[in-house]
């Protein structure tokens, strides 16, 4: 399936969160921020300042999915790792079904995504073509946030201002490419660290994906060699995915992942 957002992910922890450029460009005007009189603007600017100092992260992940049409609920558990500027790993397996996995590695140039059903590792080239600019994606939104850019691309508001431990935000997409992926997202940030604790996303079909991050370690000692092309398991093949894929013409698996979610 095609992956969304924002990513969320989350680490998406967003998981790695790398994807197609939006179909519409953000408006040229930059939103005006007023931190003296607007609590949301003040929080977003503080979030931006805090994230600038983060070089690496390691987190435990619990991912729950609800499929409305099939009335199913699944739970995945595992780890996510992130190292600036654009390195990420997501390694999850279904609870009580270790053969069901969601695993991908972002080397900064390529995303390697495991597809166990077909015994292949799908390779997505992230290098921008001549004249192209890389997209700011949800990984950037969470850990390299720019307050003005966040307000320009998403409609962000406080969902719950009374919680003593978390800032809880409601996020609505402004652009068609994002709206095709999610209708609304809810993000809980620690008031102490401004790191994500929970991300909930509802897609246009009414399905819900919830990322919980019970443990997150900022400044984790991560080896750069972890974020390299994986060795091919016995009996598996690499499958290079087409660079020219578009949302209108490509099969879902041909499109680079945006926020990692398990296949339905």
Keywords:
12-stranded mixed β-sheet; mainly beta; outer membrane lipoprotein receptor (LolB), chain A; 13% helix; disordered N terminus; 264 residues; 37% strand; disordered C terminus; 5 helices
> Ends: how far apart?
7 Å
How many separate domains make up the residues? Answer: 1
Query: How many helices does DSSP assign?
Result: 5
Give the overall shape, derived from the CA principal axes. Answer: globular
Structural class comes to: mainly beta
- Can you write the helix and strand succession as a string? HHEEEEEEHHEEHEEEE
For the record, what is the CATH homologous superfamily label? Answer: Lipoprotein localisation LolA/LolB/LppX
Assess the beta-strand content as a share of residues: 35-45%
The CATH architecture category equals: Clam
Strand elements, count: 12
The CATH topology is given as outer membrane lipoprotein receptor (LolB), chain A
**How helix-rich are the residues, as a percent range?**
10-25%
Main β-sheet, spatial strand arrangement: 7-8-9-10-11-1-2-3-4-5-6-12
Mean pLDDT reading: 79
């Amino acid at each position: 399936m095609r992956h969304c957002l924002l990513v969320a992910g989350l680490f998406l922890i967003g998981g790695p969160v790398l994807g197609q450029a939006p179909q519409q460009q953000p408006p040229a005007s930059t939103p005006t921020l007023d931190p003296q009189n607007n609590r949301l603007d003040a929080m977003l600017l503080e979030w931006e300042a805090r994230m600038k100092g983060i070089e690496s992260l390691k987190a435990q992940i619990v991912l729950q999915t609800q499929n409305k049409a099939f009335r199913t609920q699944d739970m995945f558990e595992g780890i996510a790792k992130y190292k600036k500027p654009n390195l990420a790993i997501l390694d999850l397996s279904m609870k009580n079904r270790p053969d069901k996995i969601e695993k991908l590695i972002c080397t900064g140039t390529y995303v390697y995504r495991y597809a166990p059903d077909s015994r292949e590792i799908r390779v997505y080239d992230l290098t921008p073509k001549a004249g192209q600019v890389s997209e700011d994606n949800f990984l950037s939104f969470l850990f390299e946030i720019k307050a003005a850019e966040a307000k320009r691309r998403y409609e962000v508001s406080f969902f719950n201002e009374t919680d003593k431990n978390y800032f809880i935000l409601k996020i609505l997409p402004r652009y068609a490419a994002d709206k095709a992926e999610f209708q609304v997202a809810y993000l809980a940030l620690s008031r102490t660290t401004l790191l994500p604790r929970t991300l909930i996303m509802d897609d246009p079909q009414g399905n819900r994906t919830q990322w919980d991050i019970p443990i997150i370690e900022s400044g984790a000692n991560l080896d750069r060699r972890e974020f390299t092309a994986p060795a091919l398991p016995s009996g598996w093949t690499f499958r290079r995915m087409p660079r020219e894929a578009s949302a209108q013409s490509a099969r879902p698996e041909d499109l680079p992942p945006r926020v990692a979610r398990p296949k339905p």
